[in-house]
Amino acid sequence: MNFEILSEITNMHQYDEIKIIGQNAFYQGQPYHFAAMVRKADQAQLFVLSLTNREQSGQEAEPSRLHGRHGQKQTMRQHMKKLSGGSFPFLSKLKTDREELEFGSAQSGSLDAVSQDDLEKTLLLAKLMDAGWKLPENSIFFSENWKHVECQQYQFQVPSAKLPQWKHAKAVWRPEPREHFVEKPVRIFIDDARTASKNQTPIPFSITARDGTMKDGICYINSVKREDVWQKQKELFENPVFQKNASGHMTAEDIEKMWELLEQNCPRGMYFVCIEYECTLDVSLQFYDRAYLDSGYDTHKSSSSMVFLAKPDSPKGMHGLKLKTCVIQTPVTEETRDLEVELFEVCEQVCAYEHELSM
């Protein structure tokens, strides 16, 4: 840190307009504080305070939680189930009297000043306070340790080059997935689509709705294919559109690190497995390799990972239902013909939630 960097950070917070909101909201039983909006030219940001997941649950990270019963090491199955519902809910848009503003991007970070980026948030809050923002002393955020407080930042564009004015507005949260753990063992057969569909029997399962009633579903697997993620990554990096978009924020070193991360996740010459399926319920299904689920969770292992997605070959499957995909990110060889997996998780989307803001 030096004064040159401090000057740059300070200049970042020279705004054309600041709009103080200063209103509280509750979503899924958790508190939020809408602090303010700022604008430079036609680019604007909304700032919202929230509590970290650890603080929301009222629990600190205890060493005992990293182990199963009788002191045994926690499995990946146990670890993923404990992470259930741990993601941050984010807003999708702001609806005012006159317009609807879609948020182009969002990010969240702790207010605890342990890095240059965190210092930038401290200066931002000081700027907002100079402009009239004041957090009430009875607010849950007022005396809370900053390592437990997150600042969510939402970027959006204002075509009129002016922050929106309103008497009434609604902040709209993105629909959040509701997770159901069904943990149903399944053997899948890796082959061409015809052979896979012949060998694979339908998979019935049940989930509990919000009102406590049971909902029964059936999963039909259409095909199970090897996914050549090395070829997919090569095609991505060679795509002119990707190269154009990446040129401003990715260096050759960043791309090299991505290749290294791919090598860690799927060694060269191996494949991931892609399942194409239909379901009688409007849900998303997540399959995992059973050996992976029962393996030990390593707290010292790097958390860096790559998520690979795949598109179905057609909109609908052989039963006339919407065709969806799930990529099992466990490396397999070209000789692998079948795999013991689990239909581990069923995710359904809940309706978007709106909170009214008045000025």
Major beta sheet, strand line-up:
1-2-3-7-6
> How many H/I helices?
9
The largest sheet, given as strand count, sense and whether it forms a barrel, is:
5 strands, antiparallel
Model regions low in confidence, pLDDT < 50 over at least 5 residues: 54-66
What's the alpha carbon Rg, rounded to whole Å?
A: 24 Å
The SSE string, one letter per element, is: HEEEHHEEEHEEEHEEHHHEEHEEE
Q: What percent of residues adopt helix (DSSP H or I)?
A: 10-25%
Secondary structure class reads alpha+beta
Whole-Å distance between the termini? 39 Å
> How many beta strands in the DSSP annotation?
16
Give the DSSP E fraction (strand runs of 2 or more residues).
35-45%
Anisotropy-based shape: globular
Average pLDDT, all residues:
84
